């Protein structure tokens, strides 16, 4: 199957360059740990800002590796082969975004609760953090994929990518952070998780076609 072949190809390429993933995770750890070190041991203050800090750091970390999502294929001619392939380009786009989520979004969701301990989050908040990142990060990968496709071949594409992607990621960031905050008041987190899931499904239903259109334009 074309989807599985391209998905596994991207995973193998990442496996050959483990430093790319290590840089993303190291950025997430450093950016998150700096806040407790800078603010000090104020447990109440740390707990209040934990949701926003962890989600914002995860957002920036997920965008960090997106500038090479299609650039390498564009440079070595693989993108031209995808455009000429008999299977839909949208399928190839979805496979590449899924591989990006597998090597960035999933590790961030696993790592975030460990860092949440530094902010004094309780067990329920840590579980909500992991769950929201697990549900919300696929939308970040798809939105970032659209920005990567639109900036393909542009000068200073990294800064332009962030400028395009960050406003589109705001709804996911808001509901992801607020889901952790409501656990402190005893409210149910599932409403926010459902909204995050809806955002991810809307992204899944629309963005592969938009990304494919941008790649076709770049390939002309």
Biggest sheet, in brief? none
Number of strands: 0
What average pLDDT do the residues reach? Answer: 87
Count of helices?
A: 9
Rg over alpha carbons:
18 Å
> H/E element string?
HHHHHHHHH
**What ranges have pLDDT less than 50 throughout 5 or more consecutive residues?**
none
In terms of quaternary structure, the protein is: single chain
Helix- and strand-based class? Answer: mainly alpha
Assign an overall shape.
Answer: elongated
Instruction: Work out the strand percent.
Output: under 5%
For the record, give the distance between the C-alpha atoms at the N and C termini, rounded to a whole number.
27 Å
State the helicity in percent bands.
Answer: over 70%
List keywords for this structure.
220 residues; single chain; mainly alpha; elongated
Give a verbal description of the structure.
By secondary structure, the protein is an all-alpha fold. It has nine helices and no strands. The longest helix is centred in the last third of the chain and has 30 residues, at 190-219. It is elongated and about 55 Å long.
